[in-house]
Amino acid sequence: MGNRILFVEDEADLSLIVADTLSDQGYEVETAVDGIDGLYKFKTGEYNIVVADVMMPRMDGFSMAREIRKISSTIPLLFLTAKSTVEDVEEGFEIGANDYLKKPFELRELIVRIKALLRYNKYNRNENESIRIGEYTFCIPTQTLILRGKDTLLSHFEARILELLALNIGKTVDASELMMAVWQRDDPSNRNSLHGYIHKLRRVLRHDPAISIINQRGFGYMLAINIAH
Fold first, then answer.
1. CB count, 10 Å around CB of 148?
2. Bond preceding residue 141 cis, omega within 30 of 0
3. 64-73 per-position pLDDT tens digit
4. CB within 8 A of 77, min separation 6: which ones?
């Protein structure tokens, strides 16, 4: 099993079109009509990715995703929505979404994003994958920092930014690269948000004084560890 999709959408016509198209591409597709139905099917079935609308009756996509994340920290979540504000997108990612596609969308783009998420999850999201950062252990799949037996759960944004910095310890990561990886776009509002999340990460990592996140003005940020400390 490697291509099972749970597609949660209350618009019957759209659900049928997407399900038929994905089936033609070789995917096994299970559909659900709202968040409650989707959550039940997730709990009782086995899937490799969840694709869900945000605005649905009885239980919306965000509420469903919160419950799914309590069950699995690694299942890829892709939201489909007509909501377009930065705040809406940010809320989705904070819940634990991996990607966000705005309606109306091209079916071809949906397929490309599904393939990318499945590929990324398969090769880069091993349950035991972790990175050593000074005295901390950063467990990437669960977005958790561990220090002396104490776990700190990071938000999606914090975890994604820290992952990119940790994979390039001692090297400057361009701010635009960070923003494109996290928000899929580089604009002034995201730049301010990035600075805010860097500040949060500094606070989380403050218990190891050898660790610092250096602002390389005009370029980006660098995660540095003073091994002589």
1. 7
2. no
3. 999 998 888 7
4. 49, 50, 52, 65, 68, 69, 95, 96, 97, 98, 99
